[in-house]
Amino acid sequence: MSGGSYYVPASSKWPILACIGLGAMMLGTGLVLVYGRAGMPVMLVGLAGIVLVMALWFRDVVLESRQGLYDNQMDRSFRWGMGWFIFSEVMFFAAFFGTLFYVRTFALPWLDGEGAKGVAALLWPDFNASWPLLEPPGDNVQGPSATLSPWHLPLVNTLILVGSSITLTVAHEGLKEGHRRVVRHWLGLTVLLGICFIAIQGVEYREAYLHYGITLQAGIYGATFFLLTGFHGAHVIIGSVILMVMLVRVYRGHFAPDNQFGFEAAAWYWHFVDVVWIGLFLFVYVF
Length: 287
Fold this sequence. Notes:
By secondary structure, this protein is mostly helical. The protein contains seven helices and no strands.
């Protein structure tokens, strides 16, 4: 691997198995949307297949790294790959934020008679545009009775995630300096904060559903609320699992001050998730 050589990984079965699992999950999702719970087994089998493939695939990558098979070229490949992955995640959430922006800035005013497309107001002449939209146009959709206060559970979760970025940064700096005890303690605290966030969001969802009538069927407000916060919550769960794996690897003596991109990539992902939440807190809860 010296002298400018190029590392070529061994033939792998994981890409094709990942495609099969992803296809099964998408097929099952389509069946659920059309036939309801009848498609759930196919979707769950596909999801389980993807999780299993990812676990085994990453295991192989860790083993190859521990065997010293990777060089600087592979390190650059991993960094570019993670960078493009996070960029794709940025575009993923940009689509949802764009939906929220479009509805609030264009669609609702048009339905209220404003702008060049205000003729849409003829459909519901008594509709008054406002956000949060508690009274959707038409009698077939029931809006929520109220909205969640941003200064209670959402604020607590914001402080938790911001704090988790700080604790993770301390752990990362400790790893760069070779202080493994610092890494274990602060990374463990980061994982704990992530679990707390997920638990609090579960409490918030229960409160929203039972006491405020905020559901996926509660008009555009309920749909965008759960679309944005739900996908973000899924990313927090994924990020917490990744950090747990990093914690296990730290306890096993993996990583070195000059060879720790696996940890660094996990930190990039977690910081990205934290930044997304700040945007959610501001544009979903506050404004």
